[in-house]
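Hi U.,

Before I forget, here's the chain from the pilot set. I'm dumping it here mostly so it's searchable later in email.
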Amino acid sequence: MTEFEIGLAGTGALLLMVFAGVRIYTVAAIVGVLGVVYIIGWDAGAGIGGTVPHSKSVNYALSVLPMFILIGFIAYHAGLTHALFRAAKAWVGWVPGGLAVASVFATAGFAAVSGASTATAAVFSRVAIPHMLDAGYDRRLAAGVVAAGGTLASLIPPSAILVIYAIIVEESVGTLIMAGFVPGVVSALVYAALIIGQCKLKPELGRPIPSPPMKEKLASLPGTLPIIAVVAIIFYSMYSGTATPTEAGALGAFVVLIMAIVRGMSWKNLRSALEETARLTVMIFALIWGILIFVRFLGYAGLPQAFAEWIVTLPFPPIIIMIGILLGYAVLGMFMDAIGMLLLTLPVVYPAVIALGYDPIWFGIIVVKMCEVCLITPPVGLNCYVVAAVRPDIPLGDVFRGIAPFFVADVVTVGLFLAFPGIILWLPSLINQ
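Structure:
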C-alpha cells in the first residue's frame, strides 16, 4: 500500500468507529499512532505519539480556553443569567413572541461570557422556558428558541470553538474572537426577526406581554452590568492591544468572580463552577491531543495536499465549491459533535479553502456557524438533547420540531455571510489597521 492509500484506510477506519459510537479522541489517537508507526517506523512514530500531547498542551494560546469556560460557569452559578432574562423581558416582551425574543437576546448576552453552547442551552432551559410556558407559549417554540439561542455561544466571543479553530489552522486567536462578534449579533437578529414573523402570522404561538413602565425597564438594567463589564473588558483589552486573549480572559474571570462574591456566591457554588470548568477543559484538551496525533498521520500520508490539489482543479467556480464544502459539514454534523468535526476536517479542508483564495478568518466564522447549525440538527443535535434532558415534560420530538424554523434562519444567515463577507471582516479590518 502507498502512503496515500494508508491515509485513506486510516480515515475510513476512524469514521467507521466514530459512527459506531467510539469516543473520537480515543479513535483518533489510536489510528494516528498506528498510522504514523506504519509509515515512518516504531521509534519515530511512537515518539510523535508521545510528544504531540505535551508540545501542544504547553501552547500559550490554548490557555485561553479554561479562562473563557470559567467565566461562563461562574456567571451561571452566581445567578447572573436571571438578570439578563429579566432585562430582556422588560424591554422586548411587548413585541409578538416577546418572551421568545427576550430569550434570544438573553442567550446572546450570556454567550458573551460563556463560550459553551450546551451550557447556555441548559441554563436557559431552566430560566426562560418556564416563563414562556406560563405565558401560554407553544412548547415547541419555547424549546426551539432555547436550543437555537444556545448555539450563539459558538460564535459570540468568547468562543471555545473559535479558539480551537485558531489553534488548528495557526491563525490569530484575538482576531478570530473579534471577528465573531458582528456575525453573532446578526445571527441573533435573524432569530428575533424569525420569531416576530412567526408570531405575527400565528399569534397563538406566543403572544406579547404588556410593556412595563419605563421606571421598571430602567430598574432591570443594573443587574446586567456584570455581564456588560466583562464583555467590555475583554473586547477593549484585546482591541487596544493591552492584553493577549488569555490575559483578557483571566481578567474577565477575575472580574466575574469578584462580582459573584459581592452578590453572595457560596463556596459550594464556586466549587461547582471550578469543577465543571475542569471537566469541560479536560474533555476539550483530550480531543485536541487525539486529533492532533491523527493530523500528523494525515500529513505523513499526504491527504491534505492531495485534497487541496483536487479541489483546485475542479471545473466549478470557487463559490460553488465552497457551498459544496458547507453542505458536507451540514451532513457530517448530523452525526458528530462540533469540536470533533472541526478537528477531523480542518487539516484536510483548510488547505483546499486557502488554495481557492478565501480568507482564513472569514472561513473560520463560516465553519463555526456551520457548527452552530449542527448543534440543532438531528440525530445528534446536542443542544436539543440538553433541552429535553433539562425539561423532561417536553418530548425530544417536540424540541426537534421547534428548531426547524431556526435551521432555515441559519441557512439564511450563512447565505448573508457568503454574499457579504464584509459582515465578518469589517471589525477585524479595524483592529489590523
